[in-house]
Amino acid sequence: MDAMENHFLSDMRVMFGRSMRHIFRSTDTILTVAVMPVALMLLFVYVFGGAIQTGTDNYVNYVLPGILLIAIASGTSYTAYRLFMDKQRGIFERFQSMPIARSAALWGHVLTSLVSDAISVAAIILVALIIGFRPSAGVVPWLAVAGILALFALALTWIAATAGLSAKSVDGVSAFSYPLIFLPFISSAFVPTESMPPVVRAFAENQPVTPIVESIRALLSGQPIGSDIWVALAWCLAILIVAYLFAMRAYQRKVA
Amino acid sequence: MHNQAIQVKGLQKSFKQLHVLKGVDFEVEKGSIFALLGSNGAGKTTIVKILTTLLKPEGGTATVNGFDAVSNPDSVRRSISLTGQFAAVDEMLTGRENLIMIAKLRHLKNPRKVADELLNRFGLTDAADRSVSTFSGGMRRRLDIAMSLIGKPQLVFLDEPTAGLDPEARFEVWKVVKELANGGTTVFLTTQYLDEAEQLADQIAILHEGRIIASGTLADLKKLFPPARVEYVEKQPSLEEIFIAIVGKKEER
After folding, report:
1. B208 — contact with chain A (CB < 8 Å)?
2. Where in chain B is the domain with CATH 3.40.50.300?
3. pTM of structure
């Protein structure tokens, strides 16, 4: 038993290496997690942005946080897909019948999800800088942004894990991610909520994406962040804990 | 006791209303090829999953290489390997990468060398660096079995290893199984092809409606039937024999 736990890190590294290879060999994944969000950003900045009144003169600064959240949401949908395929194709059973650390396979997927999200976030920020994103944040606010994004990615990853482990068909696997990808559109990610009709506005201001977007935006532009960051953190942690419990239950059922 | 690779007593398992195993008993001798026969849905895979620690039984005991599958799964896992019903290979990786991955997970010293040896032994050296998604069914199965041999487990489970394979690929798998047994590895095999059991197995057990209804060597099983009568029949080669003969000759050339 002790020997097994000692192998946890090396086993997880093997699993991580495996699923990172999956990502870099899948054109589809790269298109969805990096190219699509960048295209969306260009669309908003160069097509819609001119007509949107945000009260700021730099729309790239305004729109970037929402784009990052969309990229993370679509990235984690692939985590669900990869977990489901492992389960479906029998390779999961092969791993479970081997003397490897029990949850190494699952944690390998979780780590892959976080790392690939980080890569696509970095790529998007790079393009944003090229098209005029001008942050005025110092090191500490940047670290805070990284922390919030990591927490958001982890929360969504556990939702993805639950979906991947309990889905019955490949069509059902990524269905969970559509509302998550769509959520930023009904928030302050692209337009200020003041312009929305009362019901939509009430929803937009009280769903998790708005405080997350507002905190990241404030952090990046060096403005006071107020209470938004606490609401954002509370949302992320609450989703994280609930999703983690569900994912673990699905996982236990799977490994019986 | 020490000559038994597997001892199963009174094994029970149900899925919701369906009572799949109703008290299964059998033993597998070390170093033998054991074939579990049964039609689709008889519960062969359920037995394999219990013996490989993937499922827990509701009743009875399963001892694998001297370890209880329920209370000591880690020791069981160290001494076995499973080749499941569907080739459990990673399609996105190459053949070589698949083997190296398993060798690393078995914590072997020189994963590359292990992979090279197995690629060579299974005739996959030329295809080693191609993505597995381009492999034929037979190649996939060979890779699958090769992955199961990494770390030299004492007992190998093959769940319907030739399902869906063409005759040539089937023949290759049979050859591998025989070689394994000659090397002293115990092979537990499930199949629905009777000729496969007849070709390979030292011991055969027939699973029917949740119980083993007959078991023993082929000779034992034959005794269960009325004594043989002498009949004169013109011996025609089967289509399979013809196919193998022609294809075999082609390869020799």
Report:
1. no
2. 4-89+154-248
3. 0.86
